[in-house]
């Protein structure tokens, strides 16, 4: 992190902790230069960044001030309390009904599962893809069969190394997106009728995959900021024949929760002691807002039972359907499953992304992407705090691009969903994130799209609709 970003982060933390309050004057550029031994340009860049995030404002001839929030700070939701024990899944039809209703490009995409495609270097990727197609070696149709293109797997292994994890290229299996990775991992360690543990709420695609494979699930309570309750998971492992855990530990969908480093290490060790594999869906791991990335689970001790799934869809190449599994001791089985189902992932796409990772400025792109998402998060949350009822609850995420809202108890999220669509606005209603269709008064909003005037107006309209249902 460069110096102006670090100064901006430290100032933002002071604002978040309440040390600097709305209306307080920030130290002058000259004062900060003197106390931190940095240049005026560095200070100015930091203040511009904070201003772009909506945290401070410049007043002519007076300096910079902490911006007075136009709304109220909302409390965060409490730990979830899923009902009952294991559940046989019947959710796919219900989920498809909801998802099919939000495909219209004219609808404001607050319910989308994807960030804006305009945040990504698709033109540059296209040039690499064109080069890969022109230079395509016919032998690669054989050599790049699963586990996948060797150079791409080497580049992925180097990404792990930068996060403190030593992952062999032979352990990495290239997949057609993270969704295929989830399906392959579940097939590798379960049989129809087996029980797996998931967090509650959870990403609906994991529910659909589990239903398709004939699995039962047990929902584990989670906190919208801190993630899964490890105590509840430990109790479930003692009392139920759990065959695998399907979890999101970094910026989980839908809540944006982040499991802390110490708790993550304990969870991985706990599952190792019970010999229960962890299937970790970690597609948002590069989208962190803090100066340092979260702990990579493959860097923890005893991580051979961890099947770490990620993809380039959320951070680089939406639509390319390129993901992978760092599969640990299950790598050979996943390779065979891949060969017997989809056979291979598109070879020119693998080659193109490998070349981009080597020469395309991936880290520079990621820094810009994180900064943009952080700004969009601040703007969306400020709009929610301004327009939604005071007893709305939200937990501010530290990464990803989702915000989870717990609305007043009288609000039916499914009814709100239908009302919002009539106004040209999509949202993701809470029941699609639960095996038992719980979270009936919760919604997920997406801040992965630029906060245009239309988006800000849509949030204001949603706030009015929520108020009408209270």
From TrEMBL:
It holds the Pfam family Aminotran_1_2. InterPro entries: Aminotransferase_I/II_large, HTH_trans_reg/aminotransferase, PyrdxlP-dep_Trfase, PyrdxlP-dep_Trfase_major, PyrdxlP-dep_Trfase_small, Tscrpt_reg_HTH_GntR, WH-like_DNA-bd_sf, WH_DNA-bd_sf. Residues 1-69 form the HTH gntR-type domain. Keywords: Aminotransferase, DNA-binding, Pyridoxal phosphate, Transcription, Transcription regulation, Transferase. SUPFAM superfamilies: PLP-dependent transferases, Winged helix' DNA-binding domain. CDD domains: AAT_like (cd00609), WHTH_GntR (cd07377). SMART domains: HTH_GNTR. GO terms for molecular function: transaminase activity. It comes from the Bacteria. In the C-terminal section; belongs to the class-I pyridoxal-phosphate-dependent aminotransferase family. This is PLP-dependent aminotransferase family protein. It comes from Dechloromonas hankyongensis.
């Amino acid at each position: 992190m460069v110096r102006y970003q670090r100064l901006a982060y430290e100032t933002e933390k002071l604002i978040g902790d309440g040390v600097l309050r709305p209306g307080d004057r920030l130290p002058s550029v000259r004062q900060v230069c003197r106390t931190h031994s940095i240049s005026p340009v560095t200070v100015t860049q930091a203040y511009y960044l904070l201003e772009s995030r909506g945290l401070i404002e410049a007043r002519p001839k007076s300096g910079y001030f902490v911006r007075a929030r136009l709304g109220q700070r909302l409390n965060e939701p409490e730990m979830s309390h899923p009902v009952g024990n294991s559940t046989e899944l019947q959710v796919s039809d219900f989920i498809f009904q909801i998802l099919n209703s939000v495909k219209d490009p004219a609808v404001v995409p607050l319910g989308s599962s994807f960030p804006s495609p305009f945040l990504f270097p698709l033109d540059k990727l296209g040039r690499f893809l064109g080069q890969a197609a022109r230079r395509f070696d016919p032998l690669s149709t054989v050599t790049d069969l699963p586990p996948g293109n060797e150079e791409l797997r080497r580049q992925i292994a180097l990404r792990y190394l930068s996060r403190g994890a030593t992952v062999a290229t032979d352990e990495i299996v290239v997949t057609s997106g993270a969704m295929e990775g989830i399906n392959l991992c579940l097939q590798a360690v379960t049989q129809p009728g087996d029980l797996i543990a998931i967090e509650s709420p959870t990403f609906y695609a994991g529910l659909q995959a589990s239903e398709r494979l004939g699995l039962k699930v047990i929902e584990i309570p989670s906190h919208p900021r801190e993630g899964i309750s490890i105590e509840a998971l430990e109790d479930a492992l003692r009392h139920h024949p759990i065959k695998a855990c399907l979890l999101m530990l970094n910026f989980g969908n839908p809540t944006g929760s982040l499991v802390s480093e110490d708790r993550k290490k304990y969870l991985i060790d706990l599952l190792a002691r019970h010999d229960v594999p962890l299937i970790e869906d970690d597609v948002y791991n590069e989208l962190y807002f803090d100066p340092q990335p979260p702990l990579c689970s493959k860097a923890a001790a005893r991580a051979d039972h961890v099947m770490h799934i990620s993809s380039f869809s959320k951070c680089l190449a939406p639509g390319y359907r390129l993901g992978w599994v760092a599969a640990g001791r299950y790598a050979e089985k996943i390779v065979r499953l891949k060969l017997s189902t989809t056979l291979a992932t598109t070879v020119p796409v693998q080659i193109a992304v490998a070349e981009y990772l080597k020469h395309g400025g991936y880290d520079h792109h990621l820094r810009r992407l994180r900064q943009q998402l952080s700004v969009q998060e601040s703007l969306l949350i400020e709009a929610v705090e301004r327009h939604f009822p005071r007893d709305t609850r939200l937990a501010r995420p530290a990464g990803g691009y989702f915000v989870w809202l717990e609305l007043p108890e009288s609000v039916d999220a499914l009814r709100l969903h239908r009302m919002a669509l009539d106004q040209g606005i999509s949202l993701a209603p809470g029941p699609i994130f639960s095996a038992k269709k719980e979270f009936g008064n919760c919604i997920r909003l997406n801040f992965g799209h630029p906060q245009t005037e239309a988006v800000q107006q849509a949030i204001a309209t949603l706030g009015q609709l929520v108020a009408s249902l209270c």
